[in-house]
Design a protein that fits this description.
Two copies of one chain form a homodimer.
Chain A (H helix, E strand, L loop, with lengths): L13 H13 L5 E8 L9 E2 L3 H9 L5 H9 L5 H8 L6 E5 L4 E2 L6 E6 H5 L2 H25 L4 E3 L7 H13 L4 E2 L2 H7 L9 H6 L3 H12 L4 E3 L5 H12 L5 E4 L4 H14 L6 E4 L5 H6 L7 E4 L1 H4 L9 E9 L5 E3 L14 E7 L5 E8 L10 E2 L1 E6 L2 E2 L5 H17 L17 E4 L4
Parallel strand pairs in A: 6-7, 6-11, 8-9, 9-10, 10-11, 15-19
Antiparallel strand pairs in A: 1-5, 1-12, 2-4, 3-5, 3-17, 12-13, 14-15, 14-16, 17-18
Helix pairs in contact in A: 2-6, 3-4, 6-7, 7-8, 7-15, 10-11, 11-12
Keywords (chains A, B): Glycosyltransferase, Ligase, Phosphoprotein, Pyridine nucleotide biosynthesis, Transferase
Protein name (chains A, B): Nicotinate phosphoribosyltransferase
GO biological process, one term (chains A, B): NAD+ biosynthetic process via the salvage pathway
Chain lengths: ~450, ~450
Amino acid sequence: MISINSRTSLLTDHYELTMLQAALHSGAASRPSVFEAFARRLPDGRRYGIVGGTGRLLEGIANFRFSELELGFLEQNQVVNRQTLDFLANFRFSGSIYGYAEGEAYFPNSPILIVESSFAEACILETYILSVLNHDSAIASAASRMTSAASGRPCIEMGSRRTHEEAAVAAARAAVIVGFTATSNLEAGLRYGVKTVGTAAHSFTLLHDSERDAFRAQLESQGRGTTLLVDTYDVVSAVRTAVELAGPELGAVRLDSGDLIAQAHEVRALLDSLGNENTRIVVTSDLDEYAIAALAAAPVDSYGVGTSLVTGSGAPTAGMVYKLVSRAGADGQFVSVAKAAKNKTSVGGRKYALRRRSPQGVAVAEVVGIGHRPQDDGDDRALMHEFMIDGVLQEGWTGAAGVSRAASQYQESIAELPSSWRRLQKGEPVIPTEYESHES
Amino acid sequence: MISINSRTSLLTDHYELTMLQAALHSGAASRPSVFEAFARRLPDGRRYGIVGGTGRLLEGIANFRFSELELGFLEQNQVVNRQTLDFLANFRFSGSIYGYAEGEAYFPNSPILIVESSFAEACILETYILSVLNHDSAIASAASRMTSAASGRPCIEMGSRRTHEEAAVAAARAAVIVGFTATSNLEAGLRYGVKTVGTAAHSFTLLHDSERDAFRAQLESQGRGTTLLVDTYDVVSAVRTAVELAGPELGAVRLDSGDLIAQAHEVRALLDSLGNENTRIVVTSDLDEYAIAALAAAPVDSYGVGTSLVTGSGAPTAGMVYKLVSRAGADGQFVSVAKAAKNKTSVGGRKYALRRRSPQGVAVAEVVGIGHRPQDDGDDRALMHEFMIDGVLQEGWTGAAGVSRAASQYQESIAELPSSWRRLQKGEPVIPTEYESHES
């Protein structure tokens, strides 16, 4: 595993550390606490979300330490006092983290991540946890709608240039988890072992004296299985030139502009007439899930998706929050807590969750138990996994292995959703979230 | 300067390197080339954009090198051949880069960045350049509308938790350039020397046995100048408790939910009646430029902005592209080039730009010269600066100094725009972009 998150501890909000300071002062910093990350609602009209980022998050938490560099900054800028600096110098998360597996579907109020530790330890992880989960879950949730719309045709992630350069790596990772077959992002290949692909841009054609020269260079260098970009000048003549130079073994042609549906039909007919029945057609050009769905009846072999993927197709953040839901009082007894103020009400108490399934294995409800595990009716599936226990990272969630596991989890999760999960139009969550608040 | 971009060379698309390989094969890789980064249009209805990310980009390009780690990955995964690996092993950008200063306003087709080098060198920077400029310019452009709407009241950036953890640092940096007075993001403070602030969240109140205990702890630890969060339970009783404990020196109270306009009036009246005329009111809670504008008449002292800032307030990416616009042919003469295909037409040729100003110093047009510098009418301002010359980074653009310089540039740039730049409703760009294509 290539770790790049070598410094994560200052990827956080100033107030996490000033709260820590004040809680150390009052003595409440050591109170055993339970924090929960959840989304109050899904983005407008979405029917489900997909948890993304958990593996990346766990890698980052393992590196959440304060070295001389960070401590020096905090001291010099008087962010916190000496007592707090001493606490941070020795900080290493020693609590436990539970939650939904990466790749799992989630719904409003699904308890996606539970952090159990002292207030001090759980508090200072807040911003980092939310940054990772909110970004990666937004991408995974949007990307899932695209692979769903593609109905088995391969989707390729190619949005790096439309988002922050590090967000791009995370987006590629999230896309692969929900069924994208490859990414253009090389760093994602290096870090997570995901497949990378790519051929050429318009600049490559424009660089050469003629399209023919450019195609010849690419074919000689990359082999006849390459994908030639055929819309720099005139598509029909480009396809003819491509076939003339590459013959029937030409791998694919790419269309990146214009009316993709009409062009796909035209190019397919032309390729077939020239004997290139096996040459595939790749389309790119501002595709989103709706454009992919509209291309379902066109003779297209694969989709390259960029902007709409890395921007969450209209929902660039998942809107998750991280709330203190329970903490011990002076007597050591846990007390459920929740903000009472207007329009942001939360449900206090430690949560557990399972997906209620019919005897036929179809999901019917998200059942959240408050303070207890909900009863499994025999067909249900428990949703909470152990990620860290007493500061020890559990195996299998991080690195390339974590990505593979998340991809499997995703397939299992969507396979049991009611078929309405595939509907792109706005609607209600495909299953309701139900609380069980009695003690078992 | 704290550099974190130690590895930037794989933050790129696979096809940049396969294009390089094919161009090395054809020999065209060494052709002198000119690439241009520009936006064909502004996001829907926006009247201007603000260039963000240039300083960060230049830092990253200086670190754009291929070490054993990257080369090993590329070789093992057969991304490129031996000839290309040898080229990359020795790669260090040796060309020249010109462009709009960070913080400058831009318009459709403003030539924001010009890269002059061999095709090989300019080609492989494409993805990285676009990632940085598209992200940071989207944030700077949205954030500018917020400081504009705030009309001088301080705005604080606090959106880290709603975006990728590294994008959050860049967003904080971009916000400060366009007039945000501070950020919650500590890493941005460390890297760029920007001011960080923060106080406490609802969890801090819920942690304690009572709101009174929490306020007392915070006041004792942070001093009376702190900001108390007063909407965990009941705002009116929280304000009374806060004033009772802190007296007239209480710095500020924060409102994070409910009807902010009504509450601001209520809390202002209450504070005044209790003798706390100098206690400020800070509002947060899903603010965007429209909400800020709506609060203009409310007794609010500062705004904390999160989600809408880091997601570009509806336009999370700036939509810039990076196109080959000119390159030398076999005879060494430069030829303007441009893609001819449908709906993505570009204008070929090396660009220069100035902002045409009236004798009163008001901007009237963005003048783009193709192949020559447009004539300065005497009141105009040249827009292109030298960032790198023959591989040498020019001073003053990067690090904390670059952020300060960009913040000054921003103020200069908006000061000369027609007053319509402040309108939040959708409209045309505040000045037109005009091409001058004759040779001078």
